[in-house]
Amino acid sequence: MRNRLTTSLPLALAFGLAVGACSDSTSPNDDVRGTYDAVVLRLTSGVETTDLLAAGAALSIELKTDGTTTGALVIPAEYTESGDEETVSLAGTYTYDQAEGTVTFDMAGDTFVRDITWEVVDNQLQGAFTGVDFMLTAVLQLAPGISQG
Known about the structure:
Blueprint: H1 4-13, E1 34-45, E2 48-51, E3 58-63, E4 68-75, E5 86-89, E6 92-97, E7 102-107, E8 118-121, E9 124-130, E10 135-142
Antiparallel strand pairs: 1-2, 1-3, 1-10, 3-4, 4-5, 4-6, 6-7, 7-8, 8-9, 9-10
């Protein structure tokens, strides 16, 4: 039987709400290029918190200098509506707003990734997505060997 926490996850991971991001943007560039891997992926619903990485979730996204992205979000079977593990493509584009220190994504994959305005903090992208009865917190770390700027 699925509890409230596991039924909220498909909404958090698979369904993106129409959250638009409008800002004065700059072109993608070397300031944020590189491959980012999730080091925090945490779902909070009420008083329950689940470490989704420990549960088998994974997220990796490459931001290329030309403004395109590649990567994937892996959602463990126990957290999907279908009951099967799902891998969602993160191929698309990104925009880096240097003045605001934020990154936004545009991609076909319907996930929280495109619905967050990500803050650039050191070598990380940090963001949170709040749903009706949950919050998803994510921190993506720039892979070693890649220097920004």
